[in-house]
Amino acid sequence: MFKKVNSAAYSGLKSIGIDVEINTSKKGLPEFNIVGLPSKAVDESEERVKTAIMNSNSEFPQRKITINLAPADVPKEGSFYDLPIAVGVLASTMNFNLPEKSLFFGELSLDGTLRHTKGALPLALFAKNNGYKHVFLPEESANEAAVIDGLNIYPVENLDRMVAHLLGKREIEPAEYEEEKEKKIKPEFDMKEVLGQEQAKRAAEIAAAGGHNLFMMGTPGSGKTMLARAIPGILPPLTESESLEVTEIYSISGNTPPGSGLIRNRPFRAPHHSISKVGLIGGGSRPKPGEVTLAHRGVLFLDEFNEFPRSALEAMRQPLEDGQLTISRSRERVKYPSEFMLIASGNPCPCGYLNHPEKECKCTPRQVTNYRKKISGPILDRIDLHIQVPAVDVEKLKKQRRKNEGESSAEIRKRVIKARDTQEERFKKEKIRTNAEMKNRHVKAYCNLPEKTEEMLSQAASKFNISARGYFKLIKVSQTIADLNDAEKISPDHVGEALQYRIKMDKN
User: Which of 14, 139, 217, 334 is most buried by a 10 A CB count?
Assistant: First the structure.
């Protein structure tokens, strides 16, 4: 008896159809074979499927069973072939037909229940784009897939319930998407709590408004980390399309909890400086997303920037420049999106007290030079805004705290959202969303530069030896400042302010 069950697999964020072909034969000794380049996890499906069927009021056939996962030249990995294999075995034994244009996907427990399985949203998107009508998957993963309209998403509790539905004895009702209760993740700090550092807060506002990268350098305790962790509070909410992008990434990486729906909060990733290159960029024998992809449409905060492995930082060149990265392995080549805001902070020297008004720096010039060389010029050139965060006098902090001065994150966020709305309107015919994403052709098409502004830009580029990349980044930052000021043209004043933030770490 031969049966074919439709399923899917993913390589990077791209899904491909997988035909699970099951052949059962009374000829020969009872055995169970899986072919089609299965991984260890797929091979182990044999024991999970056997035990789950026997614990689900069904009889496991004592026959020669051959499972082929086609196409046979594509490596298969993961536990989500359990359900299609089990359904195929039971269909060939009990001789029932499967509904047309249906996909099956999910991991089985030994008692026959289905476990939450990663990749539900990419599977549903694949089903929608390829003309499928019905998707059967674990109950705990159903809400994630139900966000896609035009599909019947069947939440399967266990294998026994699955068989009852397929035999027409007890139908499973399709799931309706349920928006999770508003889970507003409150940022660790409000901008109002960051006392002093007005210039740094202004730089953070510009970075948030235009999606620009920001590097803060200053002595220990000056407020760099506090400021970085307050930035999520001034960012606009994710749009519907951005939520889909982020949720898809988190789904395939196994970071969506059971019963969850669309991710509505912008990601904020803050890996430790001991992270490996693969952990930061992604990769492995079967490429998986790294931190730069998990931070897509959000913030990647690298504290103690100088302490990160140089090889890991150098690998960030492509994602910082292109907004995506390509990982190539002998068997496959995948692309991951990486459109994130890089917020980095570091000390001016190994002891941290170079140029401190009161504490003495004990580092030699050679030590300072070697410390700063840990971050290469090409990486610094890809960072739009560079800001010094000096130590703040305690007496000034006391006065400001008593007066309760400073804008709150909510007030700054209003201006950031307004500037983002301006950019959304500007780029509505393009595939970009923020000024930071502009390529050179976009700068030429959308940035209004009067003659005086052009002249100032040329003089600045010549005087400060700004690279071609830095020149265009200067225009992008100037455009963001103009958007914050609700100006139609980029004025010399906007360029003057943007120029303050092109001072590199090695110039101080």
Answer: 217
